[in-house]
Automatic annotation (TrEMBL):
It catalyses: a ribonucleoside 5'-triphosphate + 2 H2O = a ribonucleoside 5'-phosphate + 2 phosphate + 2 H(+); GTP + 2 H2O = GMP + 2 phosphate + 2 H(+); ATP + H2O = ADP + phosphate + H(+); UDP + H2O = UMP + phosphate + H(+). Its cofactor is Ca(2+); Mg(2+). InterPro entries: GDA1_CD39_NTPase. Pfam families: GDA1_CD39. Catalyzes the hydrolysis of both di- and triphosphate nucleotides (NDPs and NTPs) and hydrolyze NTPs to nucleotide monophosphates (NMPs) in two distinct successive phosphate-releasing steps, with NDPs as intermediates and participates in the regulation of extracellular levels of nucleotides. By hydrolyzing proinflammatory ATP and platelet-activating ADP to AMP, it blocks platelet aggregation and supports blood flow. This is Ectonucleoside triphosphate diphosphohydrolase 1. The gene is entpd1.
Length: 494
């Protein structure tokens, strides 16, 4: 008996208690591994969607955004899922037949239906923001502007989406939301490095927006935001009539007065010659009104292709003579000194990208344009047979305008020119005001930084699993080298 007891004491695996403990260990281990697997398994992601229609002066674009439902307050989580370009011109071109404005959106609304899961249609907000084209129409004919807006509202309200409004946004909003978009996409709000200014060149207006170290002197140019726990005072200004289509009319107006039958233009290529109607130049509130007789005339627009002369003629569209603030850009508009880096998008990008000037210094850009503007029109057409005729004819003018606006208008220098990046998209999402507009209206940018857990959930579960296995191994090693702690009473040991 004594021998048997001794044997059992030496081979504790035979002890009922040990078997019991081992069974519990193994069961606990299996449970832990199972929990870790289940918790770490990717849960099917739930997405939310939002639609913004950018009713610009030249055209309307529909943007569909998507984001993971539970992460909507994190910077950089919303991305552009899809875009649809509305056929035809901008909604302001439907002034004489307002019902056509709403009708023109139908195709892209159908397209959006196919791009968002049907069960999400009802909860997907849809917004429309109209910009400078509608601002001009409102100035010219407020009744027609109202009718056009009523028409687009009706179309959006009849869609299955959650209609959240259609309005003409202000120039300050256009500038500020463009700034929010580029900095949200660049994840700059939660970085110490600071933010990026935004430069937007549309067809009818242009915006400049940046954080200025100096206090903004004029209240009209100041916008305050508190985002992710930081305060930003923005300088922003929108120049109505200084988008690339309207500014061409301003430049032509200066050269066309008094109305002649032909016009020699250094901003168009040598050999370019087209008959145009005077009405096409003077049909906007951006230029002076002329008498009806002159309005019905036409003129021949001849190119002479000279960059330096083109620049001098473009300088005439800016007024540098009056400034009631400490400093101004042009037309008496206050502007603090340029600071930091800038993202330049829309036509800034389209034009500079076409001219292959997105990565060049200001001096090289001027040299490039000198050669380009002087190239005969026939050679240009031959080189770019597929490019839209209107764009192609105007790249010399547009490029020269961009350089003049940035250097002489906004006071960029040869030195800080390199801080401008000409951008179209940031990580597959277009730079523009629409994303910032939606983020703001859906309260997706919190004023205070959301609390973030120390580590992601998956990491936490994995860490707990590893620590448990580690403890189990320690326990086994302890048993192997020191034996099982005795369960018998001290009396028996004695
Ligand atoms: O902001 P607003 O002023 O309302 O105008 P928009 O929103 O319609 O203006 P866009 O940025 O869409 O375009 C700016 C201008 O660039 C023109 N544009 C678009 N694509 C272009 C391209 O590939 N090359 C040259 N010009 C282009 C367009 O016709 C406009 O005149
Ligand atoms: Ca625009």
């Amino acid at each position: 008996m004594a021998e048997q007891r001794e044997m059992k004491a030496k081979t504790p695996w035979h002890s009922g208690k040990v078997i019991c403990v081992a069974v519990f260990f193994i069961a606990a281990l299996i449970t832990l591994v199972a929990i870790a697997f289940v918790q770490n398994k990717p849960i099917p992601q739930k997405y939310k969607y939002g639609i913004v229609l950018d009713a610009g002066s030249s055209h309307t674009a529909v943007y569909i955004y998507e984001w993971p439902a539970e992460k909507e307050n994190n910077t950089g989580m919303v991305r552009q899922r899809h875009t649809c370009a509305v056929k035809g011109k901008g909604i302001s071109s439907y002034a004489q037949k307002s019902s056509g404005a709403g009708q023109s959106l139908m195709e892209c609304i159908e397209d959006a239906k196919g791009n968002i899961p049907a069960d999400k249609h009802e909860e997907t907000p849809v917004y429309l923001g109209a910009t400078a084209g509608m601002r001009l129409l409102r100035m010219q004919d407020s009744e027609s502007a109202e009718e056009v807006m009523t028409s687009v509202k009706a179309t959006l309200m009849s869609s299955p989406f959650d209609y959240q409004g259609a309005r003409i946004i202000s120039g300050q909003e256009e500038g500020a939301f463009g700034w929010i978009t580029v900095n949200y996409l660049g994840k700059n709000f939660r970085k110490a490095a600071g933010t990026m200014g935004a430069l937007d060149l549309g067809g009818a207006s242009t915006q400049i927006t940046f954080v200025s170290g100096q206090s903004v002197e004029s209240p009209d140019n100041s916008m305050d935001f508190r985002l992710y726990g930081n305060d930003y005072q923005l300088y922003t200004h929108s120049f109505l009539c200084y988008g690339k289509d309207q500014v061409l009319k301003l430049a032509l107006e200066k050269r066309l007065m008094p109305v002649e039958t032909s016009l020699e233009d250094p901003c168009f290529h040598p050999g370019y010659s087209e008959k145009k109607s005077v009405k096409n130049v003077f049909d906007t509130p951006c230029v002076h009104t002329i008498n009806k007789e002159d309005m019905d005339k036409s003129f021949t627009h001849n190119g002479t292709g000279n960059f330096t002369e083109c620049q001098s003629s473009i300088m005439k569209v800016f007024n540098f003579s009056q400034c009631t603030n400490s400093r101004c850009s042009f037309n008496g508009v206050y502007q603090p000194p340029i600071e930091g880096t800038f993202g330049a998008f829309s036509a800034f990008y389209f034009v500079m990208n076409f001219l292959n000037l997105t990565g060049h210094s200001l001096a090289d850009s001027k040299r490039g344009l000198e050669v380009y503007c002087n190239t005969p029109w026939d050679a240009i057409k031959e080189r770019h047979p597929t490019v839209k005729h209107k764009y192609l004819a105007e790249y010399c003018f547009s490029g020269t305008y961009i350089l003049t606006l940035l250097e002489n208008g906004y006071n960029f220098t040869f030195e800080n020119w390199k801080h401008i990046s000409f951008i179209d998209k940031i990580e597959d999402s277009n730079a523009g005001w629409t994303l910032g507009y939606m983020l703001n209206l859906t309260n997706m940018i919190p004023a205070e930084a959301p609390d973030t857990p120390l580590m992601p959930h998956g990491g936490f579960v994995t860490l707990v699993l590893f620590l448990t296995i580690f403890l189990l191994i320690l326990l086994l090693l302890w048993y192997k080298f020191l034996g099982l702690p005795s369960c018998s009473s001290p009396k028996e040991v004695v």
